[in-house]
Design a protein that fits this description.
The complex is a heterotrimer of chains A (156), B (236) and C (98). With 236 residues, chain B is of the alpha/beta class. Chain B contains five helices and twelve strands. In chain C, the strands form two sheets. A five-stranded antiparallel β-sheet of chain C has the order 1-4-5-6-7, with no helix packed on it. Chain C has a three-stranded antiparallel β-sheet with strand order 3-2-8, with no helix packed on it. The chains are: A mainly beta (156), B alpha/beta (236), C mainly beta (98). At the B-C interface, β3, β6 and β12 of B face β1 and α1 of C.
């Protein structure tokens, strides 16, 4: 049963079921993403719930977030990077429900950060006081992009 | 580094690239090479391509299918010319290989351009004059898309080799062969029985390979005898 | 933009050769989670920020490769058994050093 949970350094964890999540205010927006083929830039359209909506009213001293997905994947980012209309939990791509191959039913989308921060199959966020390296960050990825390609790209 | 000798049409969307590779150490049928393209600005792209030629052939050959939006396959099928250099690494791959000494019978299941490494196996078998029972089923959208058409027709006329097609698109008028997606009925009709312990090789897009593997397991073929190689569209 | 979710470990054959000078795709690997033994070539290769190779039976991580500007960082999990051709002198010497 799909659910999305915000927990960790918060007074009370919050959880949405799929129906509850879909009942939240959702927006459609487009993002320019550099395609892995360097010569083309894709304008991609997405539909989802802004993190501003999901985090609305949440009191916390946390400055960081670990996003976690089915299968044990985690990625960490500053809480601040999720605010100000710069991050979403998306469930639609190109007007269609997000396919499992591309991270569906829902994935995190944070276009201004490196692509592996946009966790596929996201199931929740854990707010943390300290920055806790996620799956790739612990392996050495942090401020490094892929040496063979540009730093931000849609790889899948 | 290799030099292109020829680029020839193999089907409407595929070309066979013949290469002069002076330091080529030889290969085993089923192996592949990693091709690397470097743009003037240093941007690099790398893709794996199965070797189409038999180990006995004097020239190294790759068959590349043009994939929509595939940056590497576009270059290889449209830009590459005789005399151009092509950087490749290999041969590599030890898991998906077959040598006549490994014996048979051979059951080969190919989805589209997944035929390439299996063709290398059949060519090796022919070059060794091996009479190992070999049965190939090629799943293809239309006969026009078939790679190595004439060669397959000739192979199929040999008593120890069976070549079957299943057409997933529109079949030509009068077609009496299989149509549609691979299924257990087809396998039961032509594949060696499971207690013959055929050596099974499956190659093609992931969906095809997954589906074929599921069918083989359903028909109780020993999973140890099944080797699979998946092409993503990342093969483009 | 439909791309396969994963390839199999065969796709790493060239890279293994580059790193280790030897074939690894026919190497059997024993999974640390489920205990299954499968050839590396049959494992599932995913591309994320780097590469992840997963057990074909239970999907637990078998190998994680991080590609950093100046080095590759490899993290192996499970039991990988492979051979390197050629002899090596490994018997300790008289003074106890190797």
């Amino acid at each position: 049963m799909w659910s999305f949970t915000i927990q960790g350094a918060v007074h009370r964890p919050v959880r949405w079921t799929w129906d509850e999540f879909r009942a939240l205010a959702s927006e459609t927006f487009t993002v320019d993403i550099h395609c892995v083929t360097k010569w083309s830039k894709l304008e991609t359209s997405w539909g989802g719930v802004s993190l501003d909506t999901l985090l609305d009213g949440m009191e916390t001293e946390a400055q960081y977030v670990t996003a976690w997905s089915d299968g044990g994947y985690t990625t960490n980012l500053p809480l601040e990077d999720l605010s100000g209309g710069r991050a979403w939990v998306v469930h639609e791509y190109g007007g269609e429900p997000l396919e499992a191959e591309h991270g569906g039913p829902a994935r995190l989308l944070v276009p201004h950060l490196y692509f592996w921060k946009s966790a596929k199959w996201v199931r929740g966020l854990t707010l943390t006081v300290d920055d806790e390296p996620g799956f790739w960050e612990a392996a050495g990825y942090h401020n490094y992009g892929d040496p063979w390609r540009e730093q931000r790209y849609w790889s899948d | 580094m290799t030099t292109v000798e020829a680029v020839a049409d193999e089907s409407p969307r595929a070309k066979t690239i013949t290469l002069d590779a002076p330091d080529w150490p030889g290969h085993i049928a089923g192996q592949h090479v990693d091709v690397r393209l470097t743009a003037e600005d240093g941007y690099q792209a790398e893709r794996s391509y199965s070797i189409a030629s038999a180990p006995e052939d004097t020239r190294l050959a790759l068959t590349v299918e043009r994939i929509e939006d595939g940056e590497v396959s576009a270059y290889l099928t449209e830009e590459l010319r005789h005399g151009d250099e092509l950087e490749l690494r290999g041969p590599v791959g030890g898991h998906f290989t077959w040598n006549v000494d490994d014996g048979g019978p051979l059951l080969l299941l190919a989805g589209g351009s997944g035929l390439v490494p299996l063709m290398a196996m059949l060519r090796h078998r022919a070059a060794q004059s091996s009479r190992v029972d070999a049965r190939l089923l090629l799943s293809i959208r239309s006969l026009e898309d078939t790679l190595y058409r004439d060669e397959l027709a000739k192979l199929g006329s040999d008593q120890t080799t069976a070549v079957h097609y299943t057409i997933t698109g529109a079949a030509p008028p009068g077609w009496t062969g299989f149509t549609g997606r691979l299924n257990t009925t087809m396998l039961q009709a032509f594949a060696p029985a499971r207690d013959q312990r055929p050596r099974i090789f499956v190659c093609g897009p992931t969906a095809f390979v997954e589906h074929a593997a599921d069918l083989l397991v359903e028909l109780q073929y020993d999973t140890d005898t099944i080797r699979a190689e998946r092409f993503g569209p990342t093969g483009g | 933009m439909s791309e396969a979710q994963w390839l199999d470990g065969n796709a790493l054959a060239g890279t293994f050769h580059q790193w280790f000078g030897t074939e690894l795709t026919d190497t059997p690997r024993g999974c640390q989670s489920c205990g299954a033994v499968s050839p590396v070539g049959a494992h599932r290769l995913y591309r994320g920020a780097g590469l992840v190779l997963r057990c074909p039976v239970c999907a637990d991580v078998a190998l994680q490769v991080a590609s950093l500007p100046d080095r590759q960082v490899l993290r192996f999990a499970g039991t990988w058994c492979f051979e390197i051709a050629g002899s090596a002198q490994l018997a300790p010497t008289a003074d106890g050093t190797l």
